[in-house]
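Why do we care about 3D structure at all? Because function follows from shape, and shape follows, mostly, from sequence. That is the central idea of this module. The next example makes it concrete: a single protein chain, its amino acid sequence, and then its structure expressed as tokens.
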Amino acid sequence: MLIIIFTLIWGIALFIFLVYSLISLLFRMISYPRDFYHFAGNQQPAKIDRNLQYYVIVPCFNEAAVIQRTIKCLLRFKQFAIVVVDDASSDDSVGQIKQITNSRVHLLRRHLPNAHTGKGDVLNFALDYICQITIRQQVPFEKVIIGVVDADAQLAENALQRLNAYFSSPRTNITQMRVKMYPHFKNWLQILQDIEFFSVNHMAQIMRMYTKTVGLSGNGQFFRLAPIIDKIGAHPWGNALLDDYELTIKMMLKKLHVDYMTDTYVYQEALTSPKRFVRQRSRWVQGDLNCLKYLPKIIKSRVLSRTQKLGIYYFLLQPWINFLADVAIIILTTITLTHWHNLYGHLTLMTFSLVMAGLVVFSLFWGIIFGIFYYRDLAYYHEPPLKKHQLALLPLGISYMYVILFFSIIMAYWRWSFRQNSWIKTEHGKNVS
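And the structure:
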């Protein structure tokens, strides 16, 4: 009976994954090339709106190692004003910021005990400041574009061009850029994170454009100020550990959907340490669990379509699906190993070898598919290619990288169950192993 129950759980989880992956693949291969110019920033507007004012918010907490690089890279875009919010850093972050003497850099500081209350509060603090400036300067909120960029980030060279092309149309509201890791990879974990963001998540976001369920990624989000203030309020960000998706849900409930930028992207640092990788992902999983409080509103909403609701349900159910699937795999594997002879003793060596080979090929299938797309994506955007031995091992890494994420799920459920909602900081600019 136990085997039947957990086989059923594993089968359902596998079915959901296969259907979702297959649909994403079809949209990427068939629909996206045909509809390229319908995606955010790929349009060719009749006239660029030169009155747009960009304010890019950069949250900063102990980012002395990277904050100068990030600000200097943002200053290359002449239309950007950069609002850096230091959240009571204990390192030399403020000193590093003050070394940059440029009128387009605005340094805001939060002090204890009012600091360290979450990224959402930091972003809302910056938005209050920006609203005060724009009101004082009598700039219409329709012309004010707010961006959010992480302290370790860098925008691609064509970012402003794509943003202007998108926001020059007054009908546009919010967009999320594609995300990529910096290409100076030091280990396999960094490569796998790049594949995940640059190709796998990219494929999912393309599908979400068609279902109007594109999710904000925190890093590289830009929105027009007027509709956000009008429909969500002066403090749009909440306190969920996944503040970006919480804002996505709030927007969707107010009939605002996010558009996706496919042809420009934001770079961010990939983690080198498996320990810190697990900690980071546990925060994301716990943030997903935090967003369950919106479930009653989502279910009752008359604004959301059935497709949109289904997309949100899938996202919110992911931690539960992954947890149950992982538990099922562990139990079924344990049963198989303890009853090895009874299960496979009657098979010939040849038959057993074919069964094992089939299982290996099946497990590597999506790793091969995603690996091919990643290889092509790197070539298309003239990003540094991988070495031959890295390419050969790519399917194995992609297929099995999620094994270590089981620990992040356990950690997230533990913290969520005991209401431990403190922010687990991701360290930048350090090669920690």
